[in-house]
TrEMBL record, chain B:
It comes from the Bacteria. The lineage of its organism: Bacteria, Pseudomonadati, Planctomycetota, Planctomycetia, Pirellulales. Signal peptide: none annotated. InterPro entries: Alkaline_phosphatase_core_sf, DUF1501, TAT_signal. This is DUF1501 domain-containing protein.
Amino acid sequence: MTLCPQTITRIAVVLAALLPASWACAQSNLPSQTQLINKHIQQGWIDYELKPSPASPDGKWCRRVYLDIIGRIPTPAELDAFLQDKGADKDHRLVNMLLHDDRYTEEYARNWATVWTNILIGQTGGNERNSLTSRPGMSKYLRDSFARNKPYNDMVFELVTATGSTKPGTENFNGATNFLAMKVNEDQATLATSSTSRIFMGLQVQCTQCHNHPFNQWKQQKFWEFNSFFRQTRALRRYAEGTRDVSHAELVDEDFAGEAGDPSKAIVFYELRNGVTRTAGPVFMDGTEVDVSGYVSDVNRREALGKMMIESEFMDKMIVNRMWAHFMGYAFTKPVDDLGPHNVASHPMLLEELGAEFRKASFDLKQLIQWIALSEPYRLSSQTTRSNASDDPQQGEPPKFTHFYLRQMSAEQLYQSLVSTNKASARGSYESQEAERNRWLQQFVTAFGTDEGDESTSFNGSIPQALMMFNGDLVRNSTTTDSGSFLGDLARENMKPGDKVHRLFLAGMGRRASRDELTIANKLLAARKGDQAAMLQDMWWAILNSNEFIINH
Amino acid sequence: MFNSQWTTPAGMTRRHFMSHMAGGSAAMAGAAFTLGQTLKANADVLKKNRKSAILLWMGGGPSTIDMWDMKPGAPTGGPFKPISTSGDGQICEHMPLMAKQMHHMAVIRSMSTREADHDRGRYYMHTGFVPNPNIDHPSYGSVLAHELIGQRPELEIPPFVTVGGGSAGPGFLGMAWAPFAVTSNGQIRNLQMKLEQQRLMQRMAALDLIEKDFVKKNRGTAAEDHQKVLKKTFDLMSSEQMQAFKVSEEPEAVKERYGATGMGMGGGGFGQGCLLARRLVEAGVPFVEVDLGGWDSHSDIFNTLTNRHLPVLDKAMSALTEDLEQRGMLQDTAIIWMGEFGRTPRINQNAGRDHFARAWSVVVGGAGIKGGITIGETNSDGTTVETEPFSSEDLMTSVCKALGISPDTTYTANNRRPMKIAGGGKIIKDLFV
C-alpha cells in the first residue's frame, strides 16, 4: 500500500512522540540552535517536574509570529495561506518568509526600528521642544540597518561611535548619532555612560555614579572609568536659519583636556561619599586600560570603547536576552537589561550558549529570531494545564516557559494591525505616515522628566486605553464600511453571513467564531435589519475591544 | 429575537438603562456587565467622615536642604535665606506664600532612606517597599483608593487619578486599580461616545460574550481585570461626576491664585493640577496625585529653584492648602509633599546637587495631622539625621492612620504571601496630638 505524504508525516509525528526527545531532535531539520533551546528548556521542565502545555493551534501561532516578527497581526489572506498549507515544514517556511521575503522587508524593518527607537531614545525622545534628537533620524538609521540585516555588532559599534548630523536631509547626516545626541552634553555624559552599559551590556551602573553599589561588584570607580570614554564627545547645536530654534545637532569628537587641564593625561574627577576626590581614566569594565591621552589623534575613546564592547560576551548575552524576552514575554533575567552578578538568570547555560552561537553566526539577527521563533516553548499554547499552572512568573517565580505567557500588544502593534487591515488608511509618504503614528502614540506616554529619561505608558490596559478603543478615531476608522475597506469588501463578498463572521474572528483572533458568537451575530443582523455591513461593523468593534484581541496569546 | 431589553424607554439615562441591563440581558449573551448600583441611602452619612489624600509628587528629587531644612551659613547651605512661618520652623525665602500656611503643615526633617536611583526611589516612596523582582507592590494611590472606596458607594469616576504624571502602578491589585492619568487641563481624550445608545448596548453585549469565553479558559486575573476596566470606563463615560475634570470652568481669580494661568514651561500646569485635585476630592475621589517634575538639578540648581520650581510650587501648594481649609475639607484631606529623595548637601562643581537619600525632608498636613511643627533634625551641614530616622514605610503608615485605615490591613501578594499595606512601618507619633 502507498501512503500519502500527510499520513507519513502523521505517523512520523506519532512515532516521534513515543521516542526520547533527543532522538526526535536529531531527526528533525530544525537549526541546531533551536534544538539547543529545546534541550535546555525541556531539561528545566524535568528538573521542576512540570509538563508543558500542548502546542498552540496553528492560527494562534501564526498570529503570534506575525505580531512578534513584523509587528502586526496577519491579514485574513495571510492567515488562510498558512492554515491551508499542509506541508510538514510550514512553520519553518512561514518564519523564513517573514524574515527573508522582499514583500515583508519594509514591515520587518519598521517593526524592529520601532522596538529599537524606544530602547535607544525612549518613547518620547525627540518630541521635546528644541530636542537635539531627531526621531525620524533615529528611525531611518534603524530601518535601513534592519532592512539590510546589518550584523548586530556593526550596529552597536556604529551607535556607540557615531559622528555627524542627527537630522535626515542635512549635510553629514548619520542617524546613528541620535542615540547619544541628548546624552553627552549634560551632567558629564553620565546618561551616555549608564545607557550604553545598560542597553548593550546589561550592566546597570547608574547607581554607582554617586556611591559604590550596595550589593554588586560595580564600584563608583568603574562608573567614571566607563564614563571617561564619552568625554571627548559633544553635541553641537545647529539652529534653523536666522532663528534661535534648534534645527538639529552635530555629534563631534574633540580633544579633551580632562578635568585637571592636561590633555596628555585627560582624567576626570569624582567625589566619594565622604567628599574625598578621586580620579579616573578610560578603563573598560574588564580592566583593559586605554591610553589616557585626550587628543583624538592619539586615541578616539569612543572607537576604543566600541571595539572592546563588541568583543565582550556581555554584548552577546544581552541581545539574546532581549530577543528572548521579545518573543517569550519574559527574559532570562528580570529586568531584561540587568545581567549583573547579583541577578541570576533562569536558564544561565542556555543564555551563555545561545550568546556564543549568536557570535558564531556573525551576529545575524535574523538567524537569532529564527532559532527562537521555531523553538518548542514558543510553539506552546497560552492555556495552562494542571501540571504547569504553577509556572507563573507574575508570582515572582523564575519563568520555566511551560506555556506561552500572555501579554498585551504594544501600542505600536495595535496601530500597525489596525492600519494594515485597512488599505484606506495607509496613505501618504512613509514619513507622513510615521509622523501620524508618532502623534497617535504620544497620547499614552508620560515622561517623568528625570535625568534618566524615565517614562510610563497608559497603554497598559487601563481606562485611557479602553476609552481609546471604545471611542477613538483609530478604531472608528477600522470599522468603516467604505469601499476598499476591510469590512466594506468583506460585506460585499459572495458568501454566507456566518462565514463572514468566521472571517472576522480569523482576522482578529486567529480562530473561528464559536456557536454563541454566531448566534449573537445573527441577532445583530436582525437588529440591523439585514444590513450585513452594519452587523460586521458591530461585531468587529466588539472583537477589537476584547481582551482576546489585544492580548498576544 | 432580541428581548425587550434592547429598546431604551424614552427619558432613561444611559446609566439607569445600564443598571437595568445588568440583570436582563441573559437572553442576549449571558449576563451583561454587572453595573449594579450600591444603595445610596447611606451616602450622606458617609460623606461626613470620608477621607481623601492628595500627593504632591516632586519627580526627580527635590532639594529639601534648600527648602524645608535650611543650613544658613554652612558651606553646604547654598545662597538662599530662611524666613519665619506661621508654624514653628523656618523655610526658604522663595516660598513666602507657603510660609503663611505652615501652621497646617508638619515638616519631617529626618527622612533617611536608601534608594538614590530615580526608578527605585520612585517605587520605594510610592509603595513603602523596595523593588523586588518577585512582587509587584501596589502604590499609595491604589492602596488608599482600595481602602477608602467603601466610603463612597456613589463614586462613578476613577478613585485614583494622577495629574500630569505617571505615578506608580497598581501592582498585584490589578489594572482595575491603576491610576487614571490625565493632563492638568483635565481634558480627557475619547470621552465622547459617537454611537447611538441602543447600538452601543448591542455591541457591548457581543463584547461581553467574547470576553466571557476568554476568561473562562483559565486566563488568569488579567482577563478579569479587563472586564472590570471596561465596566469602569463605561461608568465614567456616562457619569455626571466627570464635570469635576472641567477645571477650566473655575473663576479666573481662582486660577490666578493657584498659578494656573500662563501654561509655559512647567508653569501653570502644576497650579492647574492642584486646582483639579481640589475639584476631584470635592467630587469624592479619594486619592489624587499631582506631579511637578524636573527637580533633577545636577547643575545650576539655584537658578532653577529661584526661577522655576519654587514660585510654581509656592503658589499652587499654598492656594490648595488655603482652599481646602476654607471649604472645611482640610480636616479630612491629607496633603503629602515628597519626591523620591533629597539632594546632596555638597554642591558639586556644576553648581548642582546630586541624589541624596540619607537625610532629607517631606511635608505632610491635613486629615488631623498636627500642623505648625517640625519633626526630627539633621546635623549642622545636613549630611546626617541626628534624631530618630524615618522611612517611607513610617510615612505611609502614618498617612494611613490619619486617614483612618489600619496599617495592619493585609493583602495577599501575587506570590501568595501576606503583605502589610504600608510595609509594616511605625507611626510617627509626633504627627498626632
